[in-house]
Write a structure and sequence with these properties.
The chain is mostly helical. The protein is built from 4 helices and no strands. The longest helix has 33 residues, at 3-35. The protein is elongated.
Length: 74
């Protein structure tokens, strides 16, 4: 076997392995997308309002007190 044929065979094996590796990555991504269920949410105004009211913001005045002081010093 000549050196040229040996290099060609090695390149073909490498290319085939690379194609198999890419196809396995692609199949993994499509399976993940298919298996992920969509979140069931209620889009009624009452449900949205209840969600907004349920958010705990903490004491915003205390959070921004240092920023207010910095702005007043300007």
């Amino acid at each position: 076997m000549t050196k040229k044929n040996l290099i060609l065979i090695i390149l073909l094996i490498f290319a085939a392995g690379f194609v198999l590796w890419l196809s396995s990555l692609r199949s993994d991504q499509t399976e993940d997308a298919v298996l992920t269920p969509m979140a069931q949410t209620s889009n009624t105004p009452e449900a949205i309002s209840a969600d907004i009211q349920g958010i705990e913001l903490g004491d915003l005045d205390a959070e921004f007190e240092s920023i207010d002081q910095d702005l007043n010093n300007l």
